[in-house]
Design goal:
It is built from 13 helices and 3 strands. The chain has 354 residues and is an all-alpha fold. About 5% of the residues have low confidence.
């Protein structure tokens, strides 16, 4: 059967529109990002018709993508770090699925998707090694409490650490989701309701299973109240809801939350000496927009993994930690539990007979 000519960009849009009803918005966004890298590469290589793809061209893209080249307006670009095997695996897996779709619409040969070679990924490579040490978290939160009390960056960081929630869960919280007085007759203190509302732009990763009430301390509740009464911008989002965290444009995006966390976790920002011997006059990470370039900066995921580990170190039962953080036991053990073998042994010692 002959192939029908089609441009890479057109095929990508057809694929994404087909998957819109099947994938979560965040997954669809990730796939769009990964496929954009491929279509931009095609543009640089002057591949205007997917019919031209073969095993050699796919190998060439794989080699280029492995080097971490994100800007395909420049064919050979120095200064980009290679992609981690797991990241490359994810990108190429998406490409393989896309090419299977292309085969179904007669844009590429049926056997072409199998020629996308996926890198082998060890179990260790599947797990992120970065996290936030509890002592560092206390230093960051202490500095925010003293110098940036009840600001958006303070509340953002405080809740990420205290709740151990994902960025999507944090940005989903509305004023109506707060019970800062602990007024419910069956509760003993303040709490926050994290709710899955996909039709209103605030889905949770695990859907309705992610909806839950989480207890907060009186200190956290007071800080939130002072933020709401003080610097919080009194705005509504596009669905006429009142978000807890606000910018001048409404509800912050997850990227805004991520940038905030990167910025406040730089040691130089909270007056610690740079552990990397960098000159603050020349270090690019001093700029807020490039805070992630600091080797010591941490992401929201690192705050989450650090918070989970802290709960386990302090003896919080696993099932309680799982429910609070909305994570399965398998994922908790594999990706989040950063206790050393020695720390686990010492915790078991408490329950052993003399």
């Amino acid at each position: 059967m002959g192939l029908d000519p089609i441009e890479p960009d057109v095929a990508m849009q057809m694929y994404l529109s087909t998957r819109e009803g099947e994938l979560r918005d965040k997954t669809l966004t990730s796939q769009r990002y990964r496929l954009l890298a491929f279509t931009r590469w095609c543009r640089v290589e002057e591949i205007e018709n997917l019919n031209e793809l073969d095993g050699r061209t796919l190998h060439s893209f794989r080699a280029c993508r492995r080097q971490g080249f994100d800007d395909y307006d420049v064919k050979f670009l120095d200064g980009y770090d290679p992609l981690e095997p797991q990241t490359l695996h994810n990108h190429l897996s998406t490409l393989r699925v896309f090419l299977r779709f292309c085969a179904q619409i007669d844009a590429v040969p049926e056997e072409l998707p199998s020629k996308v070679l996926l890198p082998r990924v060890t179990e260790k490579q599947q797990v992120s090694e970065t996290t936030l040490d509890p002592d560092r978290a206390e230093e960051i939160l202490g500095y925010l409490d003293r110098h940036h009390y009840a600001t958006r960056k303070h509340v953002t960081t405080l809740l990420l650490w205290h709740l151990g929630c994902r960025s999507g869960g944090l940005r989903a919280i509305d004023l109506d989701d707060l019970d800062l007085e602990g007024s419910h007759p069956k509760v003993d203190g303040p709490a926050v309701h994290i709710v899955h509302r996909p039709e209103q732009g605030t889905p949770l990763k695990n859907g309705t299973k992610g909806t839950r009430w989480n207890a907060i301390s009186h200190y956290v509740a007071q800080t939130i109240e002072d933020y709401v009464r003080g610097p919080r911008k009194d705005v509504r989002d596009d669905h006429d809801r009142e978000p807890l965290l606000t910018t001048s444009h409404g509800r912050p995006q997850t990227g805004t939350i991520r940038n905030t966390v990167y910025a406040v976790s730089r040691p130089c920002w909270y007056n610690e000496e740079c552990p990397h011997d960098r000159d603050p006059d020349t270090c690019e990470a001093v700029d807020y927009n490039f805070a992630s370039k600091c080797p010591s900066s941490r992401s929201p995921h690192d705050f989450r993994s650090g918070s989970l580990t802290r709960h386990l170190l302090e003896g919080t039962p696993k099932d309680v930690t799982q429910d609070r953080m909305n994570v399965s036991e398998t994922v908790l053990d594999r990706h989040y539990d950063r206790r050393t073998a020695r720390e686990k042994m010492e915790q078991r010692r408490r329950y052993l007979p003399e």
